[in-house]
Amino acid sequence: MNIHELIKELKEPIGGKIVLVVADGLGGLPLEPGGMTELETARTPNLDACVRDGVCGLSLPVLPGITPGSGPGHLGLFGYDPLEYRIGRGILEALGINFAVGPKDVAVRGNFCSVDAKGLITDRRAGRPATDRCKEMCVKLAGIKVPGVEIFVEPVREHRFVIVFRGDDLGDAVNDTDPQMVGHAPLLASGADVASQKTALAVNHFAAEAARVLADEWPTNMVTLRGFSRYPRISSMREVYGLKAVCLAVYPMYKGLARLVGMDIAGAGTSLKDQVDHLTRVWSNYDFFFLHYKYTDSTGEDGNFPAKVEMIERLDAELPRIRNLKPDVLIVTGDHSTPSKLKSHSWHPVPTLLLSSTCRPDAVTEFGEATCLRGGLGQFEAKYLMMLAMAHAGRLGKYGA
């Protein structure tokens, strides 16, 4: 029996409300030996109060030593084993902008990047251009034609866009063309099977044309592609947990993750304050609330330690408004760690707190990596977090006689 079969057997038809706040890339590292992480540096009186009233620990998004992408990181938090459900980033981005993905489609996440005269990448995100610039560049790319394949190019946000390749017998077992570092040229695509080789030929044709079309458009003068994927089959949160769930996210990809598991998508505005405002408005209509906060991740990827500290403090400032709604279970965690020191996702366990009237409080009084290591939740795989949430919300019955 797998986790979902067990939960389907034990789930109760009624119970309390659950709020999951995901501070993307929350975990960090000290810049110097013996120093403090971004979370430990930040002034977080409200998160600290939650820890004192609740219980905390460290969650492993996948397994020890494995650095997760945002897709696996969030699926684990939703209780879907990320080793079982391998979802490409392309489909998540496409769903995030509500693109109607069909059975002949392979969706891909695109990044505008900057390349020098030799074609070597100097900035993987093209300086994070304004979204209007992204839209202009997508219009240029949309004019590219590839024989035998229909192409759709849609803007997402800043440097991100979606390409959907539509045609007969296309596969998604194609490598990313992003080398994940500067000083290297974008990689050629290759397919692991005959169908995916057909996709790779279309991708390489498209990339060559993109280099020509964008040649005079610095800093958005080239593209990289990642996360080739088709639409997967996956049980919804309503089917697994019996929960009516809603997503409050600003960035499209996280809306895509939520749609994938059957959540409704609520308006979320453009700021954390807007998100909490919308949370308040939809409070009476749902059982489960997923609130995604992006900027702890983007500041970490930029290597900006002080900015990540500031983003954590902004999250902390909004927390009382969430607590005032009196959720039966409040969880604050991250989908992975993004230390400013590394400027990237990492394998480090993620600080996690759970607040409920049925908690068995531990002795931790401050929310940070070192203190969470001593917390009552211990160090656990993130895929088990939803079972804890369900139990504390009174939504799981007894197993066995």
Short description:
By secondary structure, the protein is an alpha/beta fold. Helices cover 33% and strands 19% of the residues.
How does this model look, in words?
A hairpin with a 5-residue loop joins strand 3 and strand 4. The chain has two domains: 3-84 and 235-392, Alkaline Phosphatase, subunit A, CATH 3.40.720.10; 92-229, no CATH class. It has an eight-stranded mixed beta sheet with strand order 9-8-10-1-11-12-2-13, with helices on both faces. Strands 3, 4, 5, 6 and 7 form a five-stranded antiparallel beta sheet that branches. The protein is α/β, with parallel strands linked by helices and 401 residues long. The chain contains 14 helices and 13 strands. Helix 5 packs across helix 9 (252-260).
Name its key features:
5-stranded antiparallel sheet, alpha/beta, 13 strands, 8-stranded mixed sheet, single chain, Alkaline Phosphatase, subunit A, 401 residues, 2 domains, 14 helices
CATH architecture designation of the largest domain: 3-Layer(aba) Sandwich
- Biggest β-sheet, characterized? 8 strands, mixed
Query: What is the β-strand count?
Result: 13
What is the name of the CATH topology of the largest domain?
Alkaline Phosphatase, subunit A
Number of helices: 14
Task: State the helicity in percent bands.
Answer: 25-40%
CATH H-level superfamily title of the largest domain:
Alkaline Phosphatase, subunit A
Backbone structural class = alpha/beta
Instruction: Please give the radius of gyration in angstroms.
Output: 21 Å
N- to C-terminal distance: 17 Å
What's the number of domains?
2
- Shape descriptor reads globular
Low-confidence segments, ≥5 residues, pLDDT <50?
none
Give the ordered list of helices and strands: HEHHEHHEEHEEHEHEHEHEHHEEHEH
